[in-house]
Structure formats: C-alpha cells, structure tokens
Amino acid sequence: MCGIVGYTGPRQAYPVILKGLKRLEYRGYDSAGIALVNSDGLNVYKKKGKVAVLEEEMENLHINSHIGIGHTRWATHGEPSDRNAHPHVSQSGNIAMIHNGIIENYSQIKKELLKKGYTFKSDTDTEVLLNFIDDILQKNECTLEEAVRIALRRIVGAYCILLVHKDDPETIIAARKGSPLVIGIGKGEHFLASDASPIIEYTKEVVYVNDYEIAIVKPDELILKNLGNDKQTPFITKLNMEMAAIEKGGYDHFMLKEIFEQPTTIYDCLRGRLDAEQGTIVMGGIQKYADQIMNAPRIIIIACGTSWHAGLVAEYIIEETCRIPVEVEYASEFRYRNPVVHKGDVIIAISQSGETADTLVAIEKAKEQGAVIVGIVNVVGSSIARASHTGSYTHAGPEIGVASTKAFTAQLAVLTMVALKIGYEKGTLNKERFMYLCKELSEIPAKAEQVLKLDDHIKEIALKYKDAPDFLYLGRGYNFPVALEGALKLKEISYIHAEGYPAAEMKHGPIALVTSELPVVFVATKDAYHEKVVSNMQEIKARKGIVISVITEGDTVSPTLSNDVITIPAADEIVAPMLSVIPLQLLAYHIGVAKGYDVDKPRNLAKSVTVE
Ligand code: M6R
Q1: What is the pTM of this model?
Q2: Tens of pLDDT along 416-441?
Q3: Which ligand 1 atom sits closest to the C-alpha of 607?
Q4: Residue 16's Cα: distance from chain center in Å?
Q5: How many whole angstroms separate alpha carbon 165 and alpha carbon 148?
Q6: Which domains does the chain have, with CATH numbers?
Q7: Among 53, 60, 51, which residue's Cα sits nearest to residue 17?
Q8: Which end of the chain has fewer beta carbons closer than 10 Å to its terminal beta carbon, N or C?
Q9: pLDDT tops 90 at residue 409
Q10: Is 523 helix (H, G, I), strand (E, B) or coil?
Q11: Kind and range of the H or E element at 492?
C-alpha cells in the first residue's frame, strides 16, 4: 500500500521518479507527489488523483535536480486530497518525507507536538512522525540520520520512510519496519523503491533493506545501520526479472495480460519440479522440512483475499491426499485472537506480494508458539518469504493488475505439488493415483490455453449481464472456493455486488434472493458432486433464476438447465480449479471494461496491503 521511489545520482531525478511512480501506481492511486532538492532548496509538488494528474501539473516545470523522492498514496489517515498527499514538509520547512505504513501511536506524539506549538497542515500520521523527527533534529543539533534513529525507537507501527533535507542535495535517509524497501545499486547512483519494478531498467543489483534498518544513501555510497547505530553489511542480490514482465505487451490492461499469461506461468511454476513421466516432484524447500510436514498434527493455512481462496482449495487437496487435518484462517482474524498453536504445527502462509501486513504478523505470532512456517510466495525476497522457515516460490512473475489472477493459479500449482509430494512420501497417496495426478497436473498449462480460446464467447456473456446489480456464484467441493474467487473478482473489478456460496447452502437462506433478474454462475465441472450440483441448478431454474454454468466437455445435462454455458476441458477435480477459475476472471474483466472502469486500478484498492 502506497508506492515510494527515491533517486540520488547524476541523472535528472524528476523523470526517474515519475516513471517509478507510474510503475508503482498499482500500490495506491489516491494522490501522488514528488519532492526534489536543488540549490533553491526543497521543491514539492503533490496532487490528489493518479500520477497522470501530477504529471500534467508538472508538465511545464523544468527543475534541475539530481535527488528526489516520490509517493503514490493509498489513503489511511485523512481523505484523498492535495493537503494529505505526500511528500509532507516539516514545520521548519527543512525536511520532506514520504511514508508507506501506519504510525499507530501518532496521536500521543501529536498531542506532545501540539503542546510545543506545532501545527499540522494535514490529517496524516506521516506529518506527525516528520515533525517529531524535525523537533529532535532541532533540539539535539544532531544529523538527520540520528534524529530519525531516535524518533523511530519510539514509533509503534509500520513504516518505510524516505527523507530529504533542503541543505543536502546528495543524501536520502530511508528506514523500514514492516513495509518494503529495495535499493538499486547503479554506477555512482542509487534508486530506492517499494519493489524492484522502478529499478530494473537501470540496474539488476539490489539490496533488500531489513526491518529496523536505516539506510544513508548518497550517489556513490550506501550505508546500512540498525537502530542501535551499528553498521550492517548490505547483502546484494541479483534481480531475476526482465522489463517485459512489467510492461503490458500489447494488451489493453495488465489484468488481461496476466490472465493470458497463465498457461506460461503455471508451466513455469511446474518446470524443473514436476516430472510426470518419472513420477517425481522436486521441491528443495519442502524436502528439507518434509518430515515435519508429514508428521504435523495439523496444518494451518494463513492468507488474505485471493490467496485465502487458494488456501481453501489446498485444504481440500491436502486433507484428501495427505490425511492431515487442515484449518484455513484469515490472517487478520488469526493475528488478533488467541489461537491455539502447538509446537510441530505447520503453518502454510500464502501471499502473492509477500508483504501483506496481516499475514506477516500472523506468521510471527505462530512462530513464537513453535510452529514451522512454510511460505508460498510470489515476490522473491519479500518480507513473508524471508520470515518463513522454508517454502516455495510460485514463479508467476510480477503481478501488476490489482485483481489477482495468475498468482492464484500459480499458488494452486505449488500447493498441489506440495500435497502430492507429501501424500506420496507419507504413503497416503498410492503410486498409481500419484502418477495419475502428476500427469493431470502437467496437462494444466495446455488445457488453460484451450480455456483462453473461449475469451470472445465469455465477452458476449459479459455484455449480456453487465447491468445486473447482483450476481451469485455457486460451487461445491473443490469448486466452492473457486465460486468465492469468481465473486471477489467481480466485486473488485466491476463494483457489482456478488456473493460466493457453497451450492448446497442455498436452500438454507440465499435462495430467497433468486428472481428472474439474478444471474447465478455455477462452477459445475465434473467431479464427485456433479449430480448434486445439477440438482442445485434445477432449484435455481425452478425459481426462474438465470443460470450461467462453467462445465466440463461432454456434460449434456447442465446445458439444458443453463441460459449460457462455458465448456472447459476435462481434468481431475483436484486440478480443475486452475481451469474453472479462468472463465470467471475473464467474465469479471469484460464486465468491468464494458462498464468503463479502470480494471487495473479499481477504486479504493491497492495491490499490496501493507497496513492492517
Ligand atoms: O499479496 P497477497 O496475496 O498477500 O494479497 C492478499 C490480498 O490482499 C489479495 O489477494 C487481494 O484480495 C486481491 N485484490 C484479490 O484480487
């Protein structure tokens, strides 16, 4: 949540920062702002709205500056407005600061500053922290770095902050706890950002800053220190990412590009791990902890949003193949109650971004109680990946559309491999079934390709129902979480109210909603419960509901009960969710586009939820 960018070096800072903000805009787009330092001091520009609004505002300005910081905001404290936009400038006018995170004890500090005569121009927690730092700087006559260090020792909450001082046209002071920060190392220049996407154009050498570290960044020097002022050795990592991965590549939207990438991303995820012919699954991180996982009395899956839906599918798969009890928890609930976690319990944390604050804190909580943490994460080097004992990357590449699509199917691919591997080694999955499921899994990329060929047909269905005010999504078994995911996609992208439900639960209440106006999407691919789902379809039809069904080829009954049918290739029920979700992603996409919405940046949302 919130994207931050910084640059110090020989280039003009403004274009580097502007381009970086555009790449990070998926993290929040309530306002954008830039602070540049030059011989005139601080030059700060900020505007409510997307980065393009700021760009227009700055169009005719020619500011010669080689250092600056930029911010794209997802509002927490204070409505989206020019005055709440970052960067904020301290009361003395000496320091500009941007912030990603939430300062939890800001109101106490604000009271103290108000007593000292400080006034505030914004409603943000950020301005409070900034004036707190400025106050320390002035009282102690210390360096900015020291003032930041002293201030942060009192701060409760999450932050990644970048600061520049009007009298220092070389140095950016940065610090993080809980919100991400990557520093790119160029030749005589440094780039700072919330993720690597603004950096890869310039350098592939990066340092991921750790929690409680402060970075003192000059064009040709990077010093890392902890809050105790001890120097830390920067650990330089090589980025394994290409520019093409963060560009639209001819598609109208990142979301569509990412939906269409799925045959490749699922393949990449399986590549080098699954050998269906030999019947082997090689996963180093899982192998290392295989005994603990196999003998775990219980597995708890922790995640949010779409990743939580992947966790629900995994619950079904793991219980079926490994016979280990699984619980799936919303990270935000888990972290605030007093959950019973025993030593030896295995926690599987699922996250695309690897930065979701609720998931991260939930992991720490479970770790304290002796659990083994297995991270299933997409973003390499992210906080959750680093906080986990072991795990497996999903290798889906950067996901930029705010609505998660390819990350979901990659998560399912990894989780299925984990379950099959553990089940086979444990002996709860016999060789024949294991070999069969490995083969089924290996065929998913090609089958996903076939599903994508239905795009035009799905678009027609989307145009037919785009004005419906409500949708229901129903499924049973492995397809129940897919129904939840379909409903979430529609809500996010088209702002249509949608609910996902287990199809059999309809009769316990929600069937009262069914009218001749209500589209009901059935995820009804062939599985153990297929006949039951067909009965549920009958129940909807009998009440004149509109049935849109996603079915398996060869199904001759469901079409007779459906107004519209989307037919996908046959696959075992364990792997079918990777296919049945694709039409639902496309349906949401086309409805959102038809309604004229910005599907890559839906209102009120941000890609990476680094606040609780
Ligand atoms: O990065 P994560 O997978 O941890 O994110 C979890 C959710 O915030 C995320 O899935 C969110 O629900 C998406 N907007 C869904 O499309």
Answers
A1: 0.84
A2: 999 999 999 999 999 999 999 999 99
A3: 14
A4: 24
A5: 12
A6: 3-244 (3.60.20.10), 248-442 (3.40.50.10490), 451-603 (3.40.50.10490)
A7: 51
A8: C
A9: yes
A10: strand
A11: helix 479-494
- What spacing in Å lies between the alpha carbon of 305 and ligand 1's midpoint? 5
Cα(354) to ligand 1 centroid in Å equals 10
Ligand 1 atom closest to the Cα of residue 609 is 8
Place of tokens 């939207």: 253
Active site residue 426: no
List ligand 1's pocket residues with C-beta within 6 A.
304-307, 351-353, 356, 359, 402-404, 492, 605, 608-609
Q: Looking at ligand 1, which atom is closest to the CA of residue 304?
A: 6
Please name the residue that has the structure tokens 């991180």: 285
**CA-closest candidate to residue 259, choices 446, 403, 378:** 403
Amino acid letter, residue 187: K
Strand partners, 520: 472, 547
**What is the spatial order of strands in the sheet that 221-226 belongs to?**
88-89, 95-103, 157-165, 172-177, 213-218, 221-226, 231-232
Residue 520 in contact with residue 547, Cβ under 8 Å? yes
CA distance 402 to 600: 6
Residue 607 has pLDDT above 80, yes or no: no
Give the Cα separation of 525 and 276 in Å (integer). 24
142 is catalytic: no
- The count of C-alpha atoms lying within 13 angstroms of the C-alpha of 438, restricted to the half-sphere facing its C-beta, is 23
The best mutation among 195, 350, 404, 495 to test binding of ligand 1, ranked by most ligand atoms within 8 Å of the C-beta, falls on 404
Per-residue pLDDT tens digits for 140-158: 989 999 999 999 999 999 8
Q: Cβ atoms within 10 A of the Cβ of 464, count?
A: 15
C-alpha to C-alpha distances, 382 to 255, 375, 441, nearest whole angstrom: 22, 10, 27
